[in-house]
Description:
Layout: H1 3-13, H2 27-67, H3 90-107
Amino acid sequence: MGxxxxxxxxxxxxxxxxxxxxxxxxxxxxxxxxxxxxxxxxREKRKQKKEDQARDMSNQEAAGAAYxxxxxxxxxxxxxxxxxxxSVPMKHIITKGKEKERQKRxxx
Length: 108
């Protein structure tokens, strides 16, 4: 049996499983187990973050296409919004939003 196999067998034979380091007196073995746990947690978090970013990107792309109406469908804009204090015309807002979305897509 090799050193690695003996080490893994030793880990599995301890009470509490391979991740329980609380009963280990040897500082090197404790550190080894703690590092293994920390590394596993780090990899899991990195994987989850990557999945979240991919999902967020997909959601943004779908949302960008779903909510932006075609400016031609808005009809003629005479510059008034119908509000007593006025506002930016909707056609302008949509046009600027589409321009920003195109610029974002070019960056990726």
